[in-house]
Design a protein that fits this description.
8% helix, eight-stranded antiparallel beta sheet, mainly beta, Jelly Rolls, single chain
């Protein structure tokens, strides 16, 4: 078995406020009012020009109000998560109005095509 140990200081990729603002402004965004929600990729995928295939993947930035992320069972006001494939889900109990931004990260966005639709279902 191999393991990766991720150190909270040595292995942290620190993003600045400009990067966060860009993610929030360029990402697809929704506002969630208090309640229970299940997020999942409903359809679609991203394709790369170099023939590596298509992926159903999005990075999520969830922020702005209190919520419980049921993958971690932690109540917080901000977290990162991802949806990887059509079977992956994220359940949130939103206690205060919260924002969700979703995006794809890539080194060359010009060769990408496709779109991913994320469903946000009342649970």
């Amino acid at each position: 078995m191999k393991t990766l140990t991720v150190d909270s200081k040595n292995n942290c990729f620190q993003v600045d406020q400009g990067w966060m603002d860009a993610f929030q402004n360029q990402g697809a965004s929704a506002t969630l009012e208090p309640g229970m929600y299940v997020l999942r990729i409903k359809s679609g995928s991203f394709s790369y020009a170099d023939g590596r295939g298509e992926e159903a993947f999005v990075l999520l930035w969830i922020y702005g109000g209190k919520f419980i992320n049921y993958k971690t069972n932690v109540e917080t006001t901000a977290t990162w998560s991802s949806l990887n494939g059509y079977d992956d889900t994220l359940t949130l109990e939103v206690k205060e109005t919260t924002n969700v931004s979703a995006a794809l990260l890539d080194v060359n966005k010009e060769d990408n095509s496709g779109e991913v639709v994320v469903s946000i279902l009342d649970a």
